[in-house]
């Protein structure tokens, strides 16, 4: 009997065949692992809303870096929680700031590990906003000066990549100019080009102690309803000197990831943020889902959408699931 339909199942008949024809590969090389460093001694404290994610004091940081290295995760992004906060976020650009000290320590321990520095002020300001506040308003241009000082101090400490996350207009141009002028023209910028004013950031603000003390961040982070604005933001950052782009959050914005990848021939990162992580962890702990299967499916989906790199708190788990090998993939 002549068949009139295509037998697509033929290429699904065994695990080996499925792997051979798989269109999207998730690899340990795609992963960037967020690390939180804090002041103090002998601190390894779990973030209550993020099971498996810890605050590390510098004297305990080496053990976490060794775990990352042993799993062949190629990069970390460092977030700092300072002891002192003020209106200008001065600890963000202090030579002995918590992030600067952490960067130097990591680069001494693991020179080949790529260290990305998150460049923002919100963890360091007493008001919790990502710039200078005057009369209840976050001021754009004066904030750029402090962001440049922060980026240069991070590069001086040894950061391999600067990742500005503040969403001030002109921040990439200002930081690129500042890095070049300081002799760090070789340091790339991974811009948080498309960062939405999202409800998915709650657990991170718990981890970084960065919740705004008044109002919200909707005057500088993007409206979650907007797609075309994301293209303008990305285009502006490219024109200002960004080397890589990022979309944050990831799960609810796969359409934006896909569109940016189709339009701009630049490496693209997706940030699988704290709220996304916490939801999966909570569901898994209640036995409602298979954590490993869900996480691998989600991150593969981000790759399929167009992400080249994925910042995720699941990075260590994923590396273990993939076998902890340099070229392991799913």
Give a structural overview:
With 330 residues, the protein is of the alpha/beta class. It is built from eleven helices and twelve strands. The chain has helices at 15-20, 58-70, 98-109, 140-157, 171-181, 202-208, 228-240, 254-263, 274-285, 291-305, 315-321, and strands at 31-38, 44-46, 54-57, 75-81, 114-119, 132-134, 137-139, 161-164, 190-195, 244-248, 268-272, 309-312. A hairpin with a 2-residue loop joins strand 6 (132-134) and strand 7. The longest helix has 18 residues, at 140-157. The model has no long low-confidence stretch (mean pLDDT 92).
Topology record:
Elements: H1 15-20, E1 31-38, E2 44-46, E3 54-57, H2 58-70, E4 75-81, H3 98-109, E5 114-119, E6 132-134, E7 137-139, H4 140-157, E8 161-164, H5 171-181, E9 190-195, H6 202-208, H7 228-240, E10 244-248, H8 254-263, E11 268-272, H9 274-285, H10 291-305, E12 309-312, H11 315-321
Parallel strand pairs: 1-3, 1-4, 1-12, 4-5, 5-8, 9-10, 10-11, 11-12
Antiparallel strand pairs: 2-3, 6-7
Catalytic activity: 2 5-aminolevulinate = porphobilinogen + 2 H2O + H(+)
Pathway: Porphyrin-containing compound metabolism; protoporphyrin-IX biosynthesis; coproporphyrinogen-III from 5-aminolevulinate: step 1/4
Keywords: Heme biosynthesis, Lyase, Magnesium, Metal-binding, Porphyrin biosynthesis, Zinc
